[in-house]
Write the structure tokens for this entry.
Amino acid sequence: MNTTLDFDNPEVAAAINPSAYGYHHGPIPNNNIGWRPTIDPKEAITTELNESPPVPPERMSGVNGLVCDIAVNGTQMCGTCCASQMALRRHIRQAHPGALENPSKANTGFEEKIAGENALKHWVLYLGWRQARYLHEPKNKISHESPIWRYADVCEMLASIDKGFKDKFGDTFHRQDAMSAPVTPQKRKNAAPATPKKPKNAAPAKTRSSSRRGRGKRMSSAHAKNSTLSDEVVDPNNDLDGEGADA
Ligand SMILES: [Zn+2]
């Protein structure tokens, strides 16, 4: 899956989401917003309790990117990242009860695997992933086991060695300012802009000025020259962060 043709092909171009096997990525509508099984709020929502919401739920395929793509505000998605399919299902049951059908117990067949991989390649290659709106920014939290992460890596590698690929699709497939490794919350705040943009209120200003110092230190060598440019690039994303869970 490391050649141009593994991505730039008619099957990826025409891949649909949801496929016959359900959603491989979002936005996945939540048909049961506000519904919750009548249990003690401290109790976990089991698959059994999630079984019969008032409105038929959507189906999510097991071939997905390990990111919670349940729509929470129009097309804006949750963005919570999980390390396994089981953890993702558990998160969705607790945070968005009734949104999804419980997973089928059958093994994933090769047709579903192909449909899912094509849909996820499409999502990455045609910049759906990069441009998607998330409540909880997943750029530094997505599992490196996620096919989305792997495909974004491969596409950026292909763009660096294949001019035709780069001219057609661009050269950036990870979400802006994505790091190469999982980072601590402190490091994640390095996405703050270096431009002297006036903060909307007092609280984010603190965060921004402290993260600017962090960024300066970290980027003192190789990237220092480009810091102004890259800070401008990450600016809109940082604003998104501010509205979401990172605030
Ligand atoms: Zn979620």
